[in-house]
Amino acid sequence: ELISSLRSKLQTLWEERELVLSEARECAERGEELEAMVQDVCKPNEFERYMMFIGDLEKVVSLLLCLSSRLARVQNAMRRIDGNTDAEEKQSLNERHKLLSRQREDAKDLKENLDRRERVVSGILAKYLTDQQLQDYRRFVQVKTFLLIEQKDLEEQIKFFEEQLENLEKSIP
């Protein structure tokens, strides 16, 4: 029953992932349309700022998600530390926790910088785009960010349930 339940949950997650990937493709198409429009109306240096912002958006959000995920795994491992855990492993986990915490703080600084850049890009676009076009741009940025987060979350859940299923199947003779 448990194996069947895990397989069913995995099937649901795979279907959700396909939907999110489909939405991501639609979002990418919308991004290409926006890019062409921005290139048509903006000066070359303004267009370059826009492109750098859009490229960095994905990188910074992905970095933050990755670091948060790794930090959560280390914190879970630290919670499992008991009297039988050797000192070397404890020290290793503590060092990884400190390093990942620092890296995540640095990534948060990058995100704050990216948010400032987004306001600058919005200001530039506001000079050229209609209110509706500007609203479309802002919605694109929000959707792109949401889809990145959703994809990462689904990948984590799928990985977790696949590991659970694998461990369960190995435990049954």
From TrEMBL:
<comment type="similarity">
    <text>Belongs to the shroom family.</text>
</comment>
<keyword id="KW-0963">Cytoplasm</keyword>
<dbReference type="InterPro" id="IPR027685">
    <property type="entry name" value="Shroom_fam"/>
</dbReference>
<dbReference type="GO" id="GO:0007015">
    <property type="term" value="P:actin filament organization"/>
</dbReference>
<dbReference type="InterPro" id="IPR014799">
    <property type="entry name" value="ASD2_dom"/>
</dbReference>
<dbReference type="GO" id="GO:0051015">
    <property type="term" value="F:actin filament binding"/>
</dbReference>
<keyword id="KW-0175">Coiled coil</keyword>
<dbReference type="GO" id="GO:0030864">
    <property type="term" value="C:cortical actin cytoskeleton"/>
</dbReference>
<feature type="coiled-coil region">
    <location>
        <begin position="90"/>
        <end position="120"/>
    </location>
</feature>
<dbReference type="GO" id="GO:0005912">
    <property type="term" value="C:adherens junction"/>
</dbReference>
<feature type="domain" description="ASD2">
    <location>
        <begin position="1"/>
        <end position="173"/>
    </location>
</feature>
<keyword id="KW-0206">Cytoskeleton</keyword>
<dbReference type="GO" id="GO:0016324">
    <property type="term" value="C:apical plasma membrane"/>
</dbReference>
<protein>
    <submittedName>
        <fullName>Protein Shroom1</fullName>
    </submittedName>
</protein>
<dbReference type="GO" id="GO:0043296">
    <property type="term" value="C:apical junction complex"/>
</dbReference>
<feature type="coiled-coil region">
    <location>
        <begin position="144"/>
        <end position="171"/>
    </location>
</feature>
<dbReference type="Pfam" id="PF08687">
    <property type="entry name" value="ASD2"/>
</dbReference>
